[in-house]
Design goal:
By secondary structure, the protein is α/β, with parallel strands linked by helices. The chain folds into 2 domains: about 1-30, no CATH class; about 35-204, 3-Layer(aba) Sandwich (Beta-carbonic Anhydrase, Chain A), CATH 3.40.1050. Helix content is about 50%, strand content about 15%. It has 11 helices and 5 strands, in the order H-H-E-H-E-H-E-H-H-H-H-H-H-E-E-H. It has helices at about 5-20, 25-30, 45-50, 75-85, 100-105, 115, 120-125, 130-135, 140-160, 160-170, 195-204; strands at about 35-40, 60-65, 90-95, 175-180, 185-190. It has a 5-stranded mixed β-sheet. Helix 3 links the parallel strand 1 (about 35-40) and strand 2 (about 60-65). The longest helix is centred in the last third of the chain and has 22 residues, at about 140-160. It is globular. The termini are far apart. It binds cobalt (II) ion. Cobalt (II) ion binds near residues 96, 100 and 101.
Length: about 200
């Protein structure tokens, strides 16, 4: 079962050791990533590869639509661990153009539980409906909604009590909003970075 994947795993581990014999031994003893990536589960948006980071360098949380819902215990646990224990310096919320989750949130079709999960994206679409309706094509509306969703999730992360406590005690921590392009492999920095409570007050 899955022999091809196991063979790939053995080949990958061998390549890593060939390039750096101490690689895995060092990782066993320490996890000290500087970054938390909150991204979409989409198989075309693999976190480490996109920013060319090795194991040990990126703490990752992924879900459908790259959401940071303030009631979601999974996301909150990851965020608190990253901020309080790992003391990451950067959190990046990374959406992607052509996101099926974003499209599914607003196409009006019923899919079951995932519709409930995607509800925050429908709220973002509603808040910005005038801006979105003014765009000429469906593709442009969805791409803009991907950006607006990322901005909203950046605000969610920055509004979190663990993050605010970290800023209050002087911890250096920046929250960034990016959107990845499946077409080019490039990340678009939305320029909505929040570095502390002052930035948050201005952004809010
Ligand atoms: Co997606």
């Amino acid at each position: 079962m899955l022999d091809d994947l196991k063979a790939k795993n053995r080949a990958w581990a061998a390549r890593m050791v060939a390039a750096d014999p101490g690689f895995f031994r060092r990782l066993v003893n320490q996890q000290a990533p500087e970054y938390l990536w909150i991204g979409c589960s989409d198989s075309r948006v693999p976190a480490n590869e996109i920013v060319d980071l090795d194991p040990g360098e990126l703490f990752v949380h992924r879900n459908v639509g790259n959401l940071a819902p303030p009631q979601d215990a999974n996301y909150l646990s990851v965020l608190q661990f990253a901020v309080d224990v790992l003391k990451v310096r950067h959190v990046m919320v990374v959406g992607h153009y052509g996101c099926g989750g974003v499209a599914a949130a607003v196409d009006g079709r019923r899919r079951g539980l995932v519709d409930h999960w995607l509800h925050p994206i429908r709220e973002v679409a509603h808040v910005h409906r005038h801006e979105l309706e003014a765009l000429p094509t469906e593709r442009e509306r969805l791409d803009r909604l991907c950006e607006l969703n990322v901005k909203r999730q950046v605000m969610n992360v920055a509004s979190d009590v663990f993050v605010q406590d970290a800023w209050t005690r002087g911890q250096r921590l920046s929250i960034h909003g990016w959107v990845y392009s499946l077409d080019t492999g490039l990340v678009n920095d939305l320029g909505v970075t929040i570095r502390g409570l002052d930035d948050l007050a201005r952004a809010g």
